[in-house]
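Side project, low priority. Logging it here so it doesn't get lost.
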Amino acid sequence: MTREETMNTDNERLKRLPVDGDVRTHGSPGAMKVCIVGASGKLGQYMVQHALDRGYEVVGVCREESVAKLDPFKGRITVVGGATDDREVIKRAVTGCDGVLVVLVPRGVHGYSSGTTQAVLDHAEPGARLVFSCGWHITRDGQDVYSWKLKTIVKVFGPLARLARFADLDDQVEACRRVFASDMRWTVVRGSDLEEGESQGLPVWSRHVGDPILTSNIMRRVDFALFMVAAIENDELVHEAPAIVGCRTPSALAHAAAIGDRMTVDSRGRIAVQP
């Protein structure tokens, strides 16, 4: 059975009780502590809410000028203001955290993504779950198959963004290379194109861009955040770089229909395809 033939359909995982069965509130003894690096952005704020919904204690990291964006969560999370590639900021934020969620932003041309990544790798607690977000353009093994549209965007936008000193996609590639080389408990989540809207449930994933299940190339941003948070407790995603897409997209539904008569559901809510 390949990963393409395995779909996680447990869209209620976000709402489940913590693993020990105790109902926890923010900051209660024993609650899982999670750091979200890049918490003030759209994706980051969705992750904060999902983490709070699960009963996690949340530490959010963002630039000083963006701290006010987290005011809706005031009193419910701890905010650490500062550049996310500042090693001391990251060290202070990730201390004692069971998981670290990182929005990899290729901001500027001074190694922002790689600096953030290295700080997290160096200062995260031993055994912590590290989950990084990026786009489909990141490849782990070179086996991804990209559309002409995506290849054109990367080929044209990348150099222009760097020339304008706005962003550096190559630095994001370098950041992920460092993650892939690490022996920490990491996952790199590669997101499709995004849209706003109500949650449709936990996205589905495959190991390689170009696999049929991913053809639709669209997903709700709130569900990208859902996958990131759910990955913290999904050990099957350790040392994986899942490419994800919305679970209700045409390609995901077509894949489910094609394998429907060969599906079984295991005790963890996953669909497995019988030969």
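Brief comment: Residues 148-163 form the longest helix (16 residues).
Revisit when time allows.
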